[in-house]
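User: Second chain of the day. Same drill as before.
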Amino acid sequence: MAYSAALNTVYNHYLSSYAPMSTSRYDTHKRGELKSIYNSIVKMSKDSPLYLIDTSRASQGFAVNLKENARQLRNTIASLGGLNEDEMLNKKVAYSSNSDLAEAVFIGELSDEEIPSFHIEITALASGQTNVGRFLPSSLPIALSEGSYSFDVIVNDLSYEFQYNIHEGETNRDIQQRLCRLINNSDIGLRSDVIEDGNGNSALRLTSAATGLKNNRDVIFHASDAGNTGRQKGSVSYLGLDSIAAAPSNAEFTVNGEARSASSNHFTLDNLFEIHLKGVSASPQDTAEIGLMADVDSLAENINNLITGYNSFLHSVNHYAEAYPLSNRLIKEMNHMSLYYQEDFEKIGISRGEEGMLSMDKDTLRSSTLAGKGTESLNAIKGFTSSILQKTRQVSLDPMQYVKRTLVAYKNPGHSYAAPYETSTYSGMMFNSYC
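Assistant: Same format as last time:
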């Protein structure tokens, strides 16, 4: 258990330093998928020669970045319909007629019944709570006596106790900044900062990460030092931590004329759409229509997202091309895939640019699809997507193949065996360096 926790800490360090750390529902796997990955690793360890690998910190960062960007590209493909060829790029895409008011993502299940559209008028956005303390002379010594203090912050139903000391000579701003760091580092759903009034005075401001009101509450959080903690009191009233400057409120809107409210500006609508409210309607006629794009428009959006993900992956690999020459092999492999399908791509408005980057003309794609001329080319897009998916699997299984390494020995033909320690090179090198 301790080994697992430590390894997770190490991995997260490199992940946050060198690669995006986003996760999604596409990172979950069925038992059969995990078994397939395991079998692939065993086969790879049987057939692969023995290498001496560069395990420098820079190489470790490159390997993590490469693996995580491959995972991100795979998840992009999965989000566009699925990983099976029949499902690829078939995702239905939602539209909003007024993206300044609301944006939408389709999350429902397709059925024989027609998916309805909705008209949304927004009268108020959900807001959080803000407390602004007393403005005190920044450079003057704090008027509280020396000693140990504490106060509680109650966020919804959870209570958090904060303890700190006041020493001789400390100013109001010293204590405000200390409490600001204490609250921000606690990660309890509050953000804190020190603000100034331009006259040499400063105050502590607390803002909730959450918005709206739930369960008939009046506030999201409140501060108090009325509890019996054995430490000195008075800091809440002195600093004004319980002074509400902006009360929280719910989002108010109508859907097809029916009044509704939500505690957040991000919610689901009838289990069909994920809605993100962004603005307030200027008039009752200022609404946003939410619905599903036509099949050809959904396809164009999916292909555009695929190209964006592909270009982003290529860009990340190109970033390391000079320092890690073996990464040029991956770039060539990706370029070879797009060159193979170039003729079919051009028929539907997809072109190759510098360094193999792709771009798409939506009007050409739409017209060729509606005219029924792009069937073979659209099949080529799915073939291209399958090739990318296969390459992301290879990179994820063994990102070390693009790191500098020296061949030591080949396996004995016909007598090869799985080498379990060899497959741990990727994670093991990081753990050993961390220790």
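The chain has eleven helices and 20 strands.

User: Great, on to the next one.
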